[in-house]
Amino acid sequence: MSIGQTFLGLLEASPRHGYDLKRAYDERFGQARPLHFGQVYATLSRLLRNGLVEVDSVESGEGPERKRYAITEAGVTDVQRWLSQPEKPEPYLHSTLYTKVVLALLTGRSAADLLDTQRAEHLRLMRELTRRKTGGDLADQLICDHALFHLEADLRWLELTAARLDELAVAVRR
Length: 174
Description:
9% strand, mainly alpha, 68% helix
């Protein structure tokens, strides 16, 4: 996800301080991986340097000055362009899991055990996401559904691979 474009989208609603941007980002998009403050201010610095945001106001207080950032017309154009471009589908043509299965077969280890362990981990995460979805708001439900659908596809692949493991072992050892 592009943090810069996400900030621009959040700023389009109204000018904000860096702290407020971080909080809004973390609440809506970063629950699993909240942003670090250094990342927030580095991103704002880059957006400022590129003319996509400007300092709307500076507030003095007991601590350091607090800058409030606003999106520029160039920033609005940039976020509009980003929103209108489709994301490249990720077909996972090279996955770490597939590599592990092949290496297990090549080295005489149990690929079936690897697949079972991975299946258990996928199911654990699916249960966790289902609990989060059940107690969450619409945004949580949608992001959990997205993750769950991907995990379901992975599980189908795990089952298919397990069913074809003997055939794969022969092909890999050739």
